[in-house]
Amino acid sequence: MNRVLISVMVVMSLLSVLGCTVGNKGLDSQTAAAKPRQQAPGSHVQVTGTLTAEGVECQALRGDDGTLYTITRRPEGFKVGDRVQVSGMVAEISFCMQGTTISVTRMVKIND
Q1: Does residue 94 share a domain with residue 77?
Q2: What pTM was computed for the model?
């Protein structure tokens, strides 16, 4: 009887540990899938999103995928809340201190 009880306890413990391990891996892969991919410095990007007031040093842009971007120049004729499409290069160095910084080559307002 004791052997059976001990065997059952060992099996239950192993299943518990394996279940937690498998569960954690599942959550990690789901979390990783939900995170946007980092852009390589110098790569060309095109982002659609909304200008926000989140930027400390630079104008912020919240991409439609939830990623926070900052842009290197103050956009004239644009305001917080505008939907825009930005094209440019990912900055290698930036004083913006937040998000992925884009050196803008083109920015247009989108009327949804």
Answers
A1: yes
A2: 0.64
